[in-house]
Amino acid sequence: MKTILATTALLTMGLSSAALAEIRLGASISATGPAAFLGDPEAKTLEMLVEALNAAGGINGEDVKLVMYDDGGDPNKARTFATRLVEDDEVVAIIGGTSTGTSMSILAIAEDAEIPFISLAGAIDIIDPVKPYTFKTPHTDRMACQKIFEDMKAQGYTKIGMISGTDGFGASMQAQCKSVVADYGIEIVADETYDPKDADMTAQLTKIRNAPGVQAVLNPGFGQGPSIVTRNYKQLDIGLPFYQSHGVASDGFIQLAGAEAAEGVRLPGTALLVADLLAEDDVQKPVVTAYKAAFEAKTGTPVGTFGGYAHDAFLILTDAIARAGSSEPAAIRDAIEATSGLAGTTGVYTFSSTDHLGLDLSAFRMLEIRGGKWTLVE
Amino acid sequence: MSELLQFLFSGVTIGAVYALVALGFTIIYNASDVVNFAQGEFVMLGGMITWFAHAAGLPLPLAALIAIAATACLGVAMNKLMIEPARGAPVVSLIIITIGASIFIEGAAQLVFDKQIHSFPAFSGDAPIRVGGATILPQSLWVTGGAIAVFVGLWLFFTRTLLGRAVLATSNNRLAAQLVGINTTFVMTLSFALSAAIGALAGVLATPITLTSYGVGIGFALKGFAGAMLGGMGNPKGALVGGFAIGMIEALTAGYLSSQYKDAAAFVVILAVLFFLPQGLFGRTSTDRV
């Protein structure tokens, strides 16, 4: 009996000390389902970073264990997995929420449990109003609109047409753009939409072309829709300046639309897309180059903005845990909020108690496609 | 004038894709009264397999043939493994089985292939053809030509060949068909192979326009199904007309009313037609002897 007790005690001690020697992080990513296009590189990025971090000795000598679930883009599943992460897996922080819907689900659980949560989704509602434990890495779609309108204003365009996808991304950005457009003295003279699964948008584009005085066209959208719109734009030979959103900021867009059709398209993108073109003294250059090299070597596929969001979330979290010197959720939260001048792939993050996004418009670079390649406009 | 022409061209482009998918529904429906909801997955496989074979270095025509043949084999396997074992089950159960098959194929495709969006080059280049101030892509003509060719083929098959009549007989009364010596098991296998091949052909022709990824199947299936219902389920003429009609309604609504209402307009028309003609525009009216 005594031996059994002693063994049990030893085992318990062994287990608890093993548990102390690792930092448990949670993630709920949409690696499958309609948002798989985004979630897949995010999941691969997190797996790769954890592996690399542990190989390099972990954080302050403690290994990191990542518990990752695939919520398939379903907010209900994301809620279930967030609960499981908090109650069963006892993680100290959660990364995830590929889409705005899943992020809102996880947010509620994380705030209740007082666990830091870094979302990878775009909508401003996630961090506005500020919630104590919720942060996010991507810029908002409102910022993308502002960046585009800034460029349009600089070019002297005052009347534009918009053709937006009816999916969550397109609809949200369409609404945000319409709410800030007046600040730039620009008027939307044609406002058309398309279903993301449509095969042809020439009818909508013809209508925009015939709108009186239209000087430029903007296409907030995501997935295959913008590629088809870009091809149709070329097919109709509209010839006006054409702007896309950050939703298609990846090499895949140029391939799908075709270099010829995509020629001259402008969009706000992150430093990640133009790693080679960054100035040598650019603070983002080292982190962007390192992530690009590691991701492309590991997966054989080109890096995209969305994998970069996961990279930044992981970077912010590990940086905060290292500075906090503790893996208590409250200490991590305080350390995240104190993050200042941390260069990620998306931008340079500086959080505060009133700003849980940490980025400004400088995080976006205005890019133009020339000869099938990205070029910097500024 | 050029505006109207452009809207019509847009309608042809969209409608040809719907019509081609709708045609795929007819054979299985004619053989068994089953609406095969995995039809969209056949379209997806046609596009995805062609892309992967082409990316692996095969010439496009060979890649397309491989995709069509492989999808036809998958159609046969689906019939042997899922539909045949449930032979005695009511039609509704069989339809539910096809929905299951659709989800299974979609899931398998994202593991076997990947989750990215793909495309391959258009058959006759991307230079638009200009007619009276409007433009249409050569690939749209390929899809339209494909839809008409499949229509003619199916029409000849069902009206001029013994095998086609055997398919119709099996649908009408399986037991009676068996009694007059029709091998109904073979008819079912054949109809799945043909339907899958037509679906894959649709995928091959449409992908340069619509692009493809593992998840596009359900969208194709719904619009194709709507086209088939509008024209009259099981009638190749109905599938062709129904598919093009939906494409035209969508394009004209987007052009003249608002793109916000284009899907709604198409479905309002479908509801109105089905209200007055429950069998669709060209559907056969069924009478039961009691």
TrEMBL record, chain A:
Where is the chain membrane-spanning? none
Recorded protein name is ABC transporter substrate-binding protein
* Keywords linked to the UniProt accession: Amino-acid transport, Signal, Transport
One Pfam annotation reads: Peripla_BP_6
Repeat keyword on record:
no
- Matching Gene3D superfamilies: 3.40.50.2300
Q: Where is the signal peptide?
A: 1-21
Keyword Hydrolase in annotation: no
Q: Which family does it belong to?
A: Belongs to the leucine-binding protein family.
Leucine-binding protein domain sequence ranges: 22-357
Automatic annotation (TrEMBL), chain B:
Q: GO CC terms for this protein?
A: plasma membrane
Q: How does it sit in the membrane?
A: Multi-pass membrane protein
Q: What is the name listed in the Swiss-Prot or TrEMBL entry for this protein?
A: Branched-chain amino acid ABC transporter permease
The listed locations are:
Cell membrane
Look up the domain of life of the source.
Bacteria
PANTHER family hit by this protein = ABC TRANSPORTER PERMEASE PROTEIN, BRANCHED-CHAIN AMINO ACID TRANSPORT SYSTEM PERMEASE PROTEIN LIVH
Member of which family?
Belongs to the binding-protein-dependent transport system permease family. LivHM subfamily.
Protein keywords: Amino-acid transport, Cell membrane, Membrane, Transmembrane, Transmembrane helix, Transport
The Gene Ontology biological process annotation of the record reads: amino acid transport
Q: Keyword Repressor: yes or no?
A: no
Primary location recorded for the protein, binned into one broad class: membrane
This entry's Gene Ontology molecular function terms read: transmembrane transporter activity
Q: Which organism is it from?
A: Paenirhodobacter hankyongi
Entry's transmembrane regions: 7-31, 51-77, 89-113, 140-158, 179-205, 211-231, 238-258, 264-282
